[in-house]
Write a structure and sequence with these properties.
The protein is 55% helix and 0% strand. The protein has three helices and no strands. The radius of gyration is 29 Å and the shape is elongated.
């Protein structure tokens, strides 16, 4: 009887803990998503304006030529 009681108590405790964790919401998670800076502020903080300008040639409409027969 004691062999079944210990796993049963452990299973009930695990279910209670899992249920409590799923039902409770952390206020820090809600505040962190509300305090998300804008994209412009993120660019300023990262220093994107200091990066060199990179010139890229547009090759989106370049097609390969037909092979010789």
């Amino acid at each position: 009887m004691m062999r079944l009681a210990i796993p049963a108590i452990a299973a009930v405790a695990l279910i209670v803990v899992a249920t409590t964790m799923l039902w409770s919401r952390s206020p820090s998670i809600e505040l962190s998503s509300a305090a998300m800076p804008s994209l412009q502020e993120l660019h300023i903080m990262a220093g994107v304006h200091k990066l060199p300008v990179q010139e890229i040639e547009d090759q989106s409409l370049v097609y390969p030529t037909a092979g010789k027969r």
